[in-house]
Structures are given as C-alpha cells and as structure tokens.
Amino acid sequence: MYSSVFEQAVLLIGAGAACLAAIFAILSYFRSHQPTDFLTATGAALLLRSETEIVRASIDDHGRGLRQELGQSFGILREGIDSQVRGFGERLNAGVTQAICNRCDVFLTCDVDTIIKCHRHWLEQRVSIKFDCRQSLFSNLGCDERA
Fold it and tell me: What is the pTM of this model?
C-alpha cells in the first residue's frame, strides 16, 4: 500500500507538532516544581531592584524626549516674543521719530533771532550742526529759508 506525498507530508507535520507539544509539556512540568524557598527576602529585593531599574530607564528615556520637546517649545516661544518686541520697538521708534520731526518743524518755524542765536551752544551739542549762518542751517536741513 502506497500513500501519496500529500498524506505523508500531513503525517510528518502532525508528528512534528506532537513532539513540540511533548517538549513544552515536559518544560512546564519541571518549571512548576520549583523549590518552596524560591522567593526569599533577598530574592524579592533583587527582583524589586531589577524591576525598579527597568522602570527608571523607561522614565529616563521618556523624560529625555519630553525635555527636548519642551526646549523646542521654549525656543519657538522665545522667537515669537523676540519678533513681537522687535515689532514694538520699530513702531515705537517710528512714533518717536515722527514726534521729534513734528517738534523740529515747529522749532524751525520760530524766529531765528530768538531761538538759534540765544541757544547756539546747546543746539550745537545736541544736534551736531554748526549754526554759522541761517543759510547753512536751512541748507543742512533741506528746506527753504524762513524769517
């Protein structure tokens, strides 16, 4: 009586699975018969210490990532605040410049004899323009001569 190759393959796979099941049964039998004093105080301390090290390593790994993410977030926040402060400074400078120009316009419309001649020394220190004559003043400022 000859059997087909398929039947022999099925028989061989079944026999292999039965052998594997027998090996696992033997291993579980010997594993279940451990000595009664297996978990002692020192054994429990070692087991607890090893588990604690595993937990600590896991927390350190997660903590490192969180610290990096927090650092990146603070970097983005710092850049945003810097741009807002820079924009505020530019707007403030524009406003101060406009206020100074408005005051200078009022100042230049005043009489030269009552302001420039009386305060020449102070003006030369602050504005760094030499007030030799009215013509040079108005030519430095780029406007027409006013009386």
Answer: 0.33
